[in-house]
Design brief:
The protein has 398 residues and is of the alpha+beta class. The chain has 16 helices and 13 strands. The chain starts with 6 loop residues before the first strand and ends in a 28-residue tail after the last helix.
């Protein structure tokens, strides 16, 4: 780890909602909810009423009756993200994107050129506000973990520098949920042992955490609670998985409708996979039932592929296997992820050859030239395609 606080975690505030407020002055200062059936984003004015991302639209409107609900504009969010990342890369060549609205930046070695890390962070916030028109919060620390925690504490529209000699003093009183990877279930397990702050976790023996959470999670949290995080800011990191999901609400869906939703998700993901010149070996189906319990089913393919038909066949078999549970418990969310990704150039073609790849290439060509809605599968005609959330472009192969 660096001896100085030189890692920045830059995170746009309430990103989708902030873009809407930027583009429509009438929304500024008002509670804004992006998305109807499910909340995709909420302005801080709406968050003050308890509205949260992924909450149902009905619950959000009950909590905040005066909220303005707007339809998402994914193209606008993608353009705003590109503009912000251009400013990140103009600040330092060492940028590691986490999502379309946040990234780590390493500014070590830029002191003579650009000034102190705190000054660089302040300048970045000013440029994002002036040139893109969006609020952004930046945390500065020696480690990626602590920089991310600092930005979370500084939100909204803030800047927080954690000096090296004040790291543990800053970290220890924070609630345990601030630890990277601690969700409600893990927090409940830790609370049962009396660990409610980061300091409590730091004081627990590593062996106790391992027995409670397992080897990987136990050692991970023990290190983070003591601010041990040697990970550098890395550029050129390729995704290990790609995913997409669709929230369904509480209404029961017939099997043919669920199949159409699955087709849409796989079709979209397979196109992304080919655009990134990747192939996958593992198809995972993710489900959330009517009681909000979750389940996942995975299948490993014998041959890595990016063919839509092969991926769809695997996903359909997984959904078919879960059909009794879906019929019994209902379904509020369906998702698909593609894992074990590899570059398509290193995969040996399998015999016998078929026309699947040629058909996919033709479909991709039409969509690339005339738009994603220019050609679609018959089962999707007349159906709501759902929202395609913008993502960071995958790094190209070397």
């Amino acid at each position: 780890m660096s001896r100085a606080a030189t890692i920045l975690h830059a995170d746009l505030d309430a990103f989708y909602a902030s873009v809407e407020q930027r583009d429509d002055p009438a929304l500024r200062g008002r509670p804004v909810i992006v998305g109807g059936g499910v909340v995709l984003a909420a302005s801080y004015e709406a968050k003050a009423h308890g509205v949260r991302t992924a909450m149902s639209g009905g619950q959000a409107r009950r909590l905040c009756p005066g909220a303005v609900v707007v339809r998402p504009r994914m193209d606008a969010y993608a353009e705003a993200s590109k503009a912000v990342f251009a400013l990140f890369r103009a600040t330092t060549p060492l940028v590691e994107g986490l999502s379309i609205d946040e990234a780590f930046l390493d500014v070590d070695g830029l002191r003579r050129i650009s000034g102190t890390p705190a000054g660089i962070a302040a300048g970045l916030r000013r440029r994002v506000a002036e040139e893109v028109g969006l609020p952004i919060t930046v945390g500065v620390a020696r480690t990626k973990f602590l920089a991310k925690v600092a930005s979370g504490v500084a939100k909204p529209d803030g800047l927080l520098v954690v000096p090296p000699d004040g790291e543990l003093e800053f970290l220890r009183p924070l609630p345990v949920r601030r630890l990277w990877g601690v969700g409600p279930a893990t927090a409940a397990k830790l609370a049962a042992y009396g660990a409610v702050t980061v300091g409590d976790v730091a004081d627990m023996p590593e062996a106790t955490l391992v027995s409670l959470l397992g080897p990987g999670a136990g050692r991970h949290l023990h290190a983070l609670a003591r601010n041990r995080d040697p990970r550098p800011v890395r550029t050129g990191v390729r995704r290990r998985s790609m995913g997409a999901q669709r929230a369904l609400g509480r209404r029961r869906r017939p099997p043919e409708e669920l199949d159409a939703l699955l087709v849409g998700l796989v079709d979209r993901l397979a196109g992304r996979l080919r655009a990134a010149h990747r192939v996958c070996r593992t198809v995972t189906l993710r489900l959330r039932f009517g009681d909000y319990a979750r389940a996942s089913r995975s299948h490993t393919l014998p041959q890595a592929t990016a063919e839509t038909s092969v991926l769809l066949d695997a996903a359909r078999r997984l959904l078919g296997g879960a059909a009794p549970l879906v019929a019994e418990r209902g379904l509020t969310l369906i998702g698909v992820s593609l894992g074990s990704l590899h570059d398509d150039r290193i995969v040996q073609l399998a015999l016998p050859f078929d026309a699947g790849e040629a058909a996919d290439a033709a479909v991709d060509g039409v969509r690339g030239r005339f738009g994603s809605s220019a050609i679609t599968r018959a089962v999707l005609l007349g159906r709501d395609p759902g929202i395609a959330v913008p993502t960071l472009p995958d790094e190209p192969p070397d």
